[in-house]
Amino acid sequence: MASDSNVEKAKDALEDGADAVETAAQATADKVSRAAQRAKDTASDALDDGSDVLENALLCAKDVIRQHPIASVTVVAAVAYLWGRIRG
User: Fold this and answer.
1) What percent of the chain has a predicted confidence (pLDDT) above 70?
2) At how many degrees (to 10) do helices 69-87 and 2-67 cross?
């Protein structure tokens, strides 16, 4: 009978341990899920900010080209010439 009591105690201890592991695993999964969501949100915000910066730069470039079309063509020609000389 003492061995039955020890077996029951061992079963209870194993069940308690399994419950503790399950609780810890769930808590860890929740933390990882929240961290992944924060990383996704941060990356999305950075992409949006970069996209906005690029869009603003293109708008500014269009305005400069419209205000100074001859100078813009001259600059492009000079850059193309230099690029051609560098490349070979």
Assistant:
1) 98
2) 120
Domain ranges, ordered by start, for the chain? 2-87
Q: Which residues contact 65 (CB under 8 A, 6 or more apart)?
A: 72
Residues 72, 65 contacting (CB under 8 angstroms):
yes
Q: Report the distance separating Cα 64 and Cα 57, nearest Å.
A: 11
Q: 3-state secondary structure string, 43-79?
A: HHHHHHHHHHHHHHHHHHHHHHHHHCHHHHHHHHHHH
Q: What is the pLDDT of residues 40-57, one digit of tens each?
A: 999 999 999 999 999 999
Three-state DSSP at 88 gives coil
The DSSP code for 59 is H
36: its two tokens: 């992944």
